[in-house]
Amino acid sequence: MEKKHIKSPLTNSFFRYCLVRFLFVIPTVLILVTVVFFLTRLTGDPITVALSGKLPPAEIAARVHQAGYDRPVIVQYIEYLGNLLQGDLGNSTSMSMPVTEILKQYGAATFELAILATIVALVVGIPLGKLAARYRDRWPDVVIRLFSIVCYATPVFFLGLVLKLIFSVYIPILPSSGRVSAFYEAQLQSVPRPTGFNLIDAFQTGDTAIIVDVLQHAILPALALGLLTAATFIRLIRTNLISTLSTDYVFAARSKGVTEKQIVNKHAWKPALMPIITVMGMNIAMMLAGAILTETTFEWKGLGYQLSQVIKARDFNAVQGIVILIAVIVSLTNFIVDVAAAAIDPRIRQKEESK
Questions:
Q1: CA-CA distance, 267 to 271, in Å (whole number)?
Q2: What distance lies between CA 90 and its chain's CA centroid?
Q3: Local structure of residue 67 (DSSP, 8 states)
Q4: Region of poorest pLDDT, from 39-48, 133-142, 184-193
Q5: How far apart are CA 176 and CA 168, in angstroms?
Q6: Which residues fall within 8 angstroms of residue 291, CB to CB, at 6 or more apart?
């Protein structure tokens, strides 16, 4: 008896699709680096702006020359790209340290906030989206849709201020700013292997009080940032589930006496998952953009907070370094999402190959 050969989804076409998608990351990052570089130079050099009237013109000119800001912009750009290829992002003029150190020191805080906000988005968005689809056009659906519209339309900084007003002023049960209380900060920094993720470092101490304190500081920022993404998930899940619930195999399941809860969770959920996975990559970019406002609102000392500070200080190298890191993260996240979608649904890569 002849054995049938089952074609694996991980074929040459799949790897070719992955390679093409990965190669898109390089021009995407390069374009963003170029745009940010030239936009920052349009405002003039930061040394003259910061020190004008404070130092003699000759000394200012000497510092400008030493920093290389008096050279043609295209020469500065080529030199910057050369240094970038060697992993050198330059030095921060406002913080007096290499930009790579800024990324290491504050990057973990932003990633921690993004992870916590994603958890909030998933925990809130998925159940409410399912519930809205299950009770379509009934009062639970109406309430959930209104909730998602309010969350989506409310600016993240305003939502953060409202949360601080409610839970830190009127009902003072949560801290309004920072990542940890000053009393515990030294203990977190003295753990044997500090990661920069306060929650992980808090568990390393084994002190329940520190763990609770870190969690309390994280609740409001994670809610402010996570509810924005949760609103998108709710609307997307609801729409896709309603579409899936109207298919023939769902009607067949109903005719067999399958409960509505089982239909939603077992029969309709997986087919509706594909568009959700695709959109999640775009929401990562939106979440990182929202992190700038969220971190500033809650004084959460991460890359978003530092970006707002270095922009005020006209610190070109620091601005470029933080933006580059965010661009790389967003591009790689979208690449991973594209690969996951292609692995689950071969029609995606077949469509790309037919172009």
A1: 8
A2: 24
A3: H
A4: 39-48
A5: 6
A6: 110, 113, 114, 117, 225, 302, 303, 304
